[in-house]
Amino acid sequence: MDPLEASRLITDEYSAKILVATFKKPKSAIELSREYGIPIAACYRRIHVLEKAGVLSCVERALTQKGKRISLYMSQLRNAYIFFENGKLRVRFQLASGVTQDFGGDWQAIETEKER
User: Which side of the chain, N or C, has fewer Cβ within a 10 Å radius?
Assistant: First the structure.
């Protein structure tokens, strides 16, 4: 993942809401959708992207009163930093596991809208 993708991952409105909402307590996609006004399809899409990036994980499969299994998700992201230093965009994720992921790159190498 390049630094621009990494920064977009955590600054996207729905992704940010999901990560903040699941920081202290696991929540289901349905809870997230209802509590934060995220359309359910968009909620599942963001959950999938966040899981793939390693910043969200399913920590439990709970049984509802109707006997249906639901996944409960919890943020694995403890800290995130976005830096612009000496012409370079850098992003750092610190995960609950203690792992630090760094995404660094040259801003000049990233295409701007005008160049496309």
Answer: C
